Amino acid sequence: MSDSVRIELQPLNESVEVKRGTPLKDVLFAYGVEFPCGGHGRCRRCRVRLLKGNLPITKEQEAVLDRSELAAGWRLACHSAVEDEVTLEIAQWETSILDDRSRFDFVPGEGLGVAIDLGTTTVVAQLLDLRTAHVLAVRTALNSQAAHGADVMSRVQYAAAQNGQQKLERLIRQEIGLLLDQLQEVARRRGGVIRQVVVVGNTVMHHLFCGVDVEPLSHAPFHPHEDGLKVFSSSELNWELDGNPAVRFLPCLGGFVGSDILAGILATKLHESEELQVLVDLGTNGEIVVGNRERMLCASTAAGPAFEGGGILMGMRAATGAIVEVELENGGIRCVILGNVAPRGICGSGLVDAVAAGLELGRILPTGRFSDRSAEWMLAEPVSLSQCDIRGLQLAKGAISAGIRILLRQWGARVDDVTRLYLAGAFGNYVSRTSARRIGLIDFPEEKVQPAGNTALLGAKLALFGGFVNDGSFEEIRSRVQHVPLASDPEFEDTYIADMRFPSA
C-alpha cells in the first residue's frame, strides 16, 4: 500500500497528493478553507462535502453536524484525516485585503523601504521608493497562522500548548519572507536595494513574530512583559535580502493595543490635533483611542469575529458571493451581492445593514429578538439571518460602544465634544455609517465619522521616513498615551450590557 493518497478538490478541479493520515486542516487552509475556532470543532466554518471516498464520522462531528448534514456528506475538516483517496467539495471564502495609496508629507530618504501590516487574518507588504514615497509594488497573503485560530486568543491558546509558539513564529516569518522575496525581485529589476523594513501589528502578532512569550496575554491582567521596539537583521529572521537590512517591529501601546494602533495615531495625526478625536479599528479585537495632542487614552475590547463574518451561521468575508449591502425597498429589502453572482453568505457590512433594515421594518426588536418570534429571517435564498447571528452582532457592537463611552467618561468628555471619529480597517472602511448608527455601534453624527482605510499600513509607511524610528518620536508619542484596562472599570459591565440593546426608532 502506498504511503500517499490523492485529494481531489471541487469545484477548483485541482488535486493534491499527501501522506496517508494527513489531517485535512494541514492541507485545505492553502485552498481557502478557514478554521476560525482554531480547529476545535465549534464554528462549522471548515465544512467540506465528501463527494467520493471515505471520511469517518467522529464524535466531534456528530456534536456539531446534524444527521441530515452527515448523510449528505458534510464533514468538519478540522476533525478529518485522509486514509484513502477522496473527492471533496470546498467553498473558498476569499479574503479581501485593504491596501493603502494615500499621499502624505515626508522627508526624502535613500533607497527602497518595505512597510508591512501584519494582521491577525491578512498580511500586506508595500515596496516604496524612499526618495519619492511612490509605491512600487504590493504583495498580500493570508496570515498562515489563521489555520490555528481566527482571533488572537485562539492563537495565544495554541501558542501555549505543545510548543505552539515556535510553530506560529516560524509560519509567519516564512510567510513574510516569501512576500519580501517577491518584492526584492521588483527592487532588483529597478536597480534598487531594500534599505529598511518596518512591521506593525497587534500585541499578539508582535509577540508571535518577535519571539516574545505570549503566556502573560493568556490571563488577567493581560499585561505583556515586553512590548517595545524590536530590531532584527534580516539574516536573523532567515531572510536573504541584499545588504541584510534592519527589520523593525514598532512598539505596542499596552495590553492588546499594538503597534498597528500606534501607526494609526500617526496616520490620522491624532497626536497633533488640538481638538478631541477618536480612532476606532474594528476587528475581532476592537481597539479605541480617544484624545488629542495633550494626552490620549487607549483600550482594546473583545468584539468577537462578527464584524468579519465570523461566528455567523452563513458568515464570510467580503468576497464574491457575499451579501455586502442590504437596502430598504418598497417595504422590503434588496440585497447587494459582491460579484453579481448567486449569494452564498453574508459579510460584516451586510450583517450590520441587515439588522439595521430589520429594525426599521420592525422585524427585529430593540432587544434583538425577531418580532414574530421566528428563528431566522431569509435575506436572499439560501442566505438567512439567525437569532444567534443577531446576538453575535449585539455582543460585538456593545463592546465597541461601551469602550468608547468608558474612554470618553475617563477623559471627562461627552460625545458632543468629539470633532471627528476615524473608522479604520477593512470593515470600518466599508460599513455604512447610517446602518452603524442605527444599530448603536457608533453614537456620533454621520458627518463626524470618517472612514480612514488601512491606517496601520499608512502609519508603517510614514515610519520609513524622517527618522521616526530612530529619533525617539514613537517613544514621545507613547509617553502621551495611557492604556485603560476596560475590565477593571467599575462601570464597564453595566455599560456593556446596556449598549447591547439596539436603539429604538
Question: Would you mind describing this structure in some detail?
Answer:
- With 505 residues, the chain is of the alpha/beta class.
- It has a domain of 86 residues: Ubiquitin-like (UB roll), CATH 3.10.20.
- α9 crosses α14.
- The chain is globular, with a radius of gyration of 23 Å.
- The termini are far apart.
- The mean pLDDT is 90.
Set down the secondary structure blueprint:
Blueprint: E1 4-10, E2 14-19, E3 22-23, H1 25-28, E4 47-52, H2 59-64, H3 67-71, E5 74-76, E6 81-82, E7 86-89, E8 112-118, E9 122-129, E10 135-142, H4 152-160, H5 164-189, E11 194-201, H6 203-210, E12 230-233, E13 246-249, H7 259-268, E14 277-281, E15 286-291, E16 296-301, E17 322-329, E18 332-337, E19 345-346, H8 348-361, E20 376-380, E21 383-386, H9 387-411, E22 420-424, H10 425-430, H11 433-438, E23 449-453, H12 455-462, H13 473-478, E24 481-483, H14 492-499
Parallel strand pairs: 1-7, 8-11, 11-13, 14-22, 16-24, 17-19, 22-23
Antiparallel strand pairs: 1-2, 3-6, 4-5, 4-7, 8-9, 9-10, 12-13, 14-15, 15-16, 17-18, 20-21
The CATH class assignment of the domain at 4-89 is Alpha Beta
Distance between the termini: 67 Å
Mean pLDDT value? 90
Which consecutive residue ranges, at least 5 long each, have pLDDT under 50?
none
- How many beta-strand runs? 24
> What CATH architecture of the domain at 4-89 would you give?
Roll
Strand adjacency order, main sheet: 10-9-8-11-13-12
The largest β sheet comes out as: 6 strands, mixed
